[in-house]
UniProtKB/TrEMBL annotation:
This is ABC transporter ATP-binding protein. GO terms for molecular function: ATP binding; ATP hydrolysis activity. SMART domains: AAA. GO terms for biological process: peptide transport. Its main location: membrane.
Amino acid sequence: MSLLTIRDLHITYGAGPTAVPAVRGVDLTVDPGRKLGIAGESGCGKSTLALAMLRLLPATARLSGEILLDGEDVLTMKWGRLRAVRWAGASIVFQGAMHSLNAVHRVGDQIAEPLLVHRQASAAAARKRVGALLEQVGLPPSRASAYPHELSGGQRQRVMIAMALACDPRLIVADEPTTALDVMIQAQILRLLERLVTEQDISLVMISHDLAVLADTCDRLAVMYAGRIVEEGPARDVYDAARHPYGRALSAAFPRIGDPASRLAPRGLPGDPPDPAALPPGCTFHPRCPSALETCRSEDPPLVQAAPGHRAACVLTPGSPA
Ligand SMILES: Nc1ncnc2c1ncn2[C@@H]1O[C@H](COP(=O)(O)OP(=O)(O)OP(=O)(O)O)[C@@H](O)[C@H]1O
Ligand SMILES: [Mg+2]
């Protein structure tokens, strides 16, 4: 059975004429111990999807569909169960570690907190585990007594990973865990995260705008555009032989891992993703698509099998109804 199964997930911020449909009918699965990358330009709904996996969205978000973690629906879980699941079932690593860590508490105490609360660990056992976790992420255990501002960006991100590992989760969701860091440190942190999840048989959902980074670290890749998955398949196939014109544009835009210039304006891809509150009719990518046909202005193609284990939502995909 899949560890994570997302079925027909829709997420809308707000209501009425100003409603923002940020996620529109996402279906995804992650098998135990596997790594799924989710790519897409800014505003495509990646963080909204990631936050939903741990039910961390603001109250203005309305959701429908299912998010099953080990068969249990995260969206309908009772609060007590959800709190337990958030650490031992699935945990999250965010981009801005400075904002996610509490500035007035020592990092060791912050790593220890979930152990004390969710594992009922004794203070001595928690201290020992914190030292071991810091060593796993490549920091000396003595750094437990540091405050976040005393650490570098890369060290803070290592602390975030230690926190995410604290209660032995089955799934880690990493939302652009390295974007704020310089390219060398990014590569180190990603390699560390990848090594730790592989060694500990943890599933990973890794989010990035950068397809090259994901192709290097994940088994499978999903490409999001305007709130939908437009392509999903084996990571190398999606990166080397994308079936959707948007997937092809993204892989061409990120020839090099962590190229910061590509972040805001992927090379060779004119224009911007649409405003989710004012989506174009038909395929939402058609205004930017070099291969667009007349039918793309009115038909929004479903995600269909383009090759074994590889799906794409494009009228040019063999098997697509249009
Ligand atoms: N709390 C919110 N209230 C209203 N709209 C929101 C909220 N959070 C996100 N949105 C909107 O939802 C859409 C998707 O945003 P999201 O943050 O999921 O995108 P993203 O793919 O993570 O982008 P980025 O690469 O910039 O992180 C955007 O149009 C965004 O403006
Ligand atoms: Mg985001």
